[in-house]
């Protein structure tokens, strides 16, 4: 059951002094609360069930499936097919591990939103604002303490824009494949502007209907990629072996780089911010310990189911390309495609090098080997992935902007900004280059998003580890230590990814630029890590409960 929200939303601004007029709508004490996604809330049925209730699980179902769409965006699909084509079934265990790690991170995000009543961006805003109340602070210091918050917002926005560019690329390629090339790539890019605004009107029909529509898109992806799986009929023994035995026999630099790409593609930084906000759409009395504990339980179950579905879809894609195209040469594929009469023979050089695929070439080779139906089914799946990810990216951007900056924009303005930034470079490449350059952008965008991971992992681990904020729901030592080790591993992987990517560019000035940016990047990451220890120590020393400073 859905009912209109009546409770006041926790405000995110306590501005001191007189603010300068802005062209943006800002929250202040007289403004209505933000309405992003929360015009309505879903009520939870009251049942005296001791362990489990399907009705309650159904009431909590929705946010996890919206979150899981980020695990199925075009960037993930391209990473999956490249993993299969380059390493066969050998990296499936890594995909499984990355999905499990993603589930644990989403658990932290959901718990933060349920326990505090605020999403991650709002907590980041208030945590850094907490320092503004230090006595005798100069104006310069008051300004400087805002810098980490602004930098953090910029990093998350970069991840959102990068993800949006991948969605634009995926949709443009899908339109091109479905129209047999009649819709040019640049035209497909422009179409994504219009269809995004059309889908934005869906939330006018109610929260549950919006969630049902996302469920429909996930179902379309599961059916289309599942059909490809049935057509190809992968070796089940090799699939299970690759999934549960962590090995990569005979793997070299190519497979190692792809393994790094799998992790960067699966775990999306802005998705953690998104999930912490989506859980606020359910009616939970945070003063009632039982209700909070129950909400945490059902949100975790729902997230596990949603990510299991997304994992199956990803496995479908990896298995299809592992079975059909692993270790195939360009000459083999050219011969088959020539016999099928495809007009895309120029995609395959006449040599014996190993086939390299992307989401465009992947559709073409499926059509060559398994008939035109396989190509069109593939294109429909890519289109569903791009459209669903576009909507969740819009919500992510709005939550992040409102949380970090207290800027309340309409969804129309928000998507116009993000989509415009994403479309300009994509459109230029589509007009002046070919499809290989367009799909090649996905590699750079995966690197970009992987680089932003610490800016979601560190804050979520920080705040969910504070007993003064999370009370009895704070992380234990296992999560704290495991999370810290995970952050170090992610940073090391990111540095490796950057070195591999920049080295391939063969440009001295790019080497120098990458070195400077890497130093700045590691400095900011180091600051965020050290701030965790400092904030916990400061709060403990001054005996200042964070809960009261957050007006919870």
UniProtKB/TrEMBL annotation:
<feature type="transmembrane region" description="Helical">
    <location>
        <begin position="477"/>
        <end position="502"/>
    </location>
</feature>
<dbReference type="GO" id="GO:0031902">
    <property type="term" value="C:late endosome membrane"/>
</dbReference>
<keyword id="KW-1133">Transmembrane helix</keyword>
<feature type="transmembrane region" description="Helical">
    <location>
        <begin position="508"/>
        <end position="529"/>
    </location>
</feature>
<feature type="transmembrane region" description="Helical">
    <location>
        <begin position="91"/>
        <end position="108"/>
    </location>
</feature>
<dbReference type="GO" id="GO:0005765">
    <property type="term" value="C:lysosomal membrane"/>
</dbReference>
<feature type="transmembrane region" description="Helical">
    <location>
        <begin position="128"/>
        <end position="145"/>
    </location>
</feature>
<comment type="similarity">
    <text>Belongs to the NRAMP family.</text>
</comment>
<dbReference type="GO" id="GO:0005384">
    <property type="term" value="F:manganese ion transmembrane transporter activity"/>
</dbReference>
<dbReference type="GO" id="GO:0005886">
    <property type="term" value="C:plasma membrane"/>
</dbReference>
<feature type="transmembrane region" description="Helical">
    <location>
        <begin position="364"/>
        <end position="385"/>
    </location>
</feature>
<feature type="transmembrane region" description="Helical">
    <location>
        <begin position="453"/>
        <end position="470"/>
    </location>
</feature>
<dbReference type="GO" id="GO:0015086">
    <property type="term" value="F:cadmium ion transmembrane transporter activity"/>
</dbReference>
<keyword id="KW-0408">Iron</keyword>
<feature type="transmembrane region" description="Helical">
    <location>
        <begin position="183"/>
        <end position="202"/>
    </location>
</feature>
<feature type="transmembrane region" description="Helical">
    <location>
        <begin position="299"/>
        <end position="326"/>
    </location>
</feature>
<keyword id="KW-0812">Transmembrane</keyword>
<feature type="transmembrane region" description="Helical">
    <location>
        <begin position="214"/>
        <end position="234"/>
    </location>
</feature>
<keyword id="KW-0458">Lysosome</keyword>
<dbReference type="Pfam" id="PF01566">
    <property type="entry name" value="Nramp"/>
</dbReference>
<protein>
    <submittedName>
        <fullName>Solute carrier family 11 member 2</fullName>
    </submittedName>
</protein>
<keyword id="KW-0406">Ion transport</keyword>
<feature type="transmembrane region" description="Helical">
    <location>
        <begin position="254"/>
        <end position="278"/>
    </location>
</feature>
<dbReference type="InterPro" id="IPR001046">
    <property type="entry name" value="NRAMP_fam"/>
</dbReference>
<dbReference type="GO" id="GO:0005381">
    <property type="term" value="F:iron ion transmembrane transporter activity"/>
</dbReference>
<keyword id="KW-0472">Membrane</keyword>
<feature type="transmembrane region" description="Helical">
    <location>
        <begin position="416"/>
        <end position="433"/>
    </location>
</feature>
<keyword id="KW-0410">Iron transport</keyword>
<keyword id="KW-0813">Transport</keyword>
